[in-house]
């Protein structure tokens, strides 16, 4: 009987639960931020904001089930966490601002997400064919950019919970972030086995305990949260379908599918199960179907979470069932607000310290992929250099594209999207179109004798360990 791939292995119950909870802790802030921002723009009460946040957690869990466990040709069946994509926040806030009666804003957003999700689902098998345009020089660049692009999130968390507060970025917050970072590093350095693998979760717990005497840990959410709650279908009204909103969210869906493709390629490399065209099509179907179903339970457009790719890279726990357990926790939090508030207790600076490790691990994985990309060739060096530079523009100079139309900002504000497009185009220009006389020395993304990792199939088969 052939040995199971680590991605398909189940782990002991305690390890499954703690490792799954670690995934939830890593992505919690990213899931709850979009509904809080959009809900505040609509003018929801504190109770309705809590409901909208719980709905996002619940739908993120359902989308994660689709992605990790899969049904039919839906789901990449990789350790992939799905949740509300931040790419849709600005367009959704714009929709809110352009809606005369704010009561109609959420139904209009939900209607647009449903249509965008269904269109994306139909387009998934065609979109997945783009995988042939992602040789190591492209995937390595994009993976590196994912890690670098996430770093400002960790730095923002490290400075405190409220950018408008006077003590934002104070020594107290930065010190807590540094302590959390050091705790994670010490656990990784001086422990072994299971304890080493849950270093981030332990860092979050210990960091939170240390934050209590400084008055940074806020436990008030525990007292205010209900024990049981359910995201009633269409709680804010039946979906409405407005053309401008649909176009806007469809563009976001394309951006999200591009980023998810890059994330799947990155995760495939990390878990040693390269994502082929079939896997990417299945993963995109899970993303888009999850998005189309989310509004039923008052959720938004769903996408893969890159920060969890970093967690897989760091812990080396590759089981998709661990992430499925994390999806179970997300569903539980959506149904039990008091459980969700337990994660909310973790102070932002503590998350920031752990985030540096997580997001840095993604960038390091990209650099490892680039090491196989033939950087001794001038063409490939140019591709990496220019693509990373373009991808860093929104991070280094956030106002760089201020004169462009607002619709273009959906794409231009994402360094991952712009860097990915640049890498694909430059690779085609330098390594495929108009083959030069030194063509034998460059990478051809569509060459029949090479697989996605850029090596001839025969060679890869020889290198693969025998079971």
Describe the structure.
Keywords: Cell membrane, Membrane, Transmembrane, Transmembrane helix, Transport. Residues 444-467 are annotated as: Disordered. The protein has 467 residues and is an all-alpha fold. It contains 19 helices and 2 strands. It has helices spanning 13-42, 46-68, 89-98, 105-127, 136-158, 171-190, 193-197, 199-211, 220-224, 243-270, 277-293, 306-315, 320-335, 337-344, 348-370, 378-396, 406-412, 415-431, 457-463; strands at 82-84, 302-304. Helix 2 runs antiparallel to helix 13 (320-335), helix 5 packs across helix 10 (243-270) and helix 16 (378-396) packs antiparallel against helix 18. The chain is globular.
Q: What are the key terms here?
A:
467 residues, mainly alpha, two-stranded antiparallel ribbon, globular, disordered C terminus
Largest sheet: 2 strands, antiparallel
Structural class: mainly alpha
Strand order of the largest sheet: 1-2
Low-confidence sequence ranges: 436-467
Question: How many strand units?
Answer: 2
Beta-strand content bin = under 5%
Shape: globular
Describe the structure concisely for a colleague.
With 467 residues, this protein is mostly helical. It contains 19 helices and two strands.
């Amino acid at each position: 009987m052939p040995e199971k791939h680590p991605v398909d292995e189940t782990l002991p119950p305690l390890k499954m639960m703690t490792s799954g909870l670690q995934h939830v802790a890593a992505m919690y802030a990213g899931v709850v931020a979009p509904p809080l921002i959009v809900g505040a723009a609509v003018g929801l009460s504190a109770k309705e904001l809590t409901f909208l946040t719980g709905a996002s957690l619940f739908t993120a869990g359902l989308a994660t089930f689709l992605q990790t466990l899969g049904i039919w040709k839906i789901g990449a069946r990789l350790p992939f966490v799905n949740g509300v994509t931040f790419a849709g926040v600005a367009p959704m806030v714009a929709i809110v601002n352009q809606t005369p009666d704010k009561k109609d804003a959420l139904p209009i957003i939900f209607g647009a997400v449903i249509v965008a999700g269904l269109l994306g689902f139909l387009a998934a098998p065609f979109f997945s064919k783009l995988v042939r345009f992602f040789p190591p020089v492209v995937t390595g660049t994009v993976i590196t950019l994912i890690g670098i692009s996430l770093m400002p999130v960790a730095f923002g968390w490290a400075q405190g919970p409220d950018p408008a507060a006077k003590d934002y970025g104070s020594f107290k917050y930065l010190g807590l972030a540094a302590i959390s970072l050091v705790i994670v590093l010490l656990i990784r350095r001086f422990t072994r086995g299971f304890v080493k693998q849950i270093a981030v979760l332990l860092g979050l717990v210990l960091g939170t305990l240390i934050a209590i005497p400084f008055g940074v840990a806020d436990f008030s959410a525990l007292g205010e949260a209900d024990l049981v709650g359910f995201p009633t279908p269409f709680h804010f009204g039946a979906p409405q379908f407005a053309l401008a909103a649909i176009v806007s969210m469809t563009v976001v869906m394309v951006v999200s599918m591009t980023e998810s493709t890059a994330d799947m390629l990155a995760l495939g490399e990390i878990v040693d199960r390269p994502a082929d065209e079939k896997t990417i099509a299945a993963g995109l179907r899970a993303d888009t179907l999850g998005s189309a179903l989310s509004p039923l339970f008052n959720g938004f457009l769903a996408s893969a979470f890159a920060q969890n790719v970093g967690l897989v890279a760091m812990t080396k726990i590759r089981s998709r069932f661990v992430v499925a357990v994390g999806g179970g926790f997300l569903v539980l939090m959506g149904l039990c607000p008091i459980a969700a508030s337990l994660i909310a207790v973790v102070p932002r600076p503590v998350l920031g310290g752990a985030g540096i490790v997580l997001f840095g691990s993604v960038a390091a994985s990209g650099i490892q992929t680039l090491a196989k990309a033939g950087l001794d060739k001038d063409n490939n060096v140019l591709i990496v250099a220019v693509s990373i530079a373009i991808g860093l523009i929104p991070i280094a100079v956030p106002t760089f594209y201020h004169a462009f139309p607002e619709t273009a900002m959906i794409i231009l504000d994402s360094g991952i999207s712009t860097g990915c497009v640049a890498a694909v185009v430059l690779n085609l220009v330098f390594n495929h179109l108009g083959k030069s006389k030194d063509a034998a020395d460059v990478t051809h993304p569509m060459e029949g004798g090479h697989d996605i990792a850029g090596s001839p199939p025969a060679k890869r088969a020889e290198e693969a360990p025998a079971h």
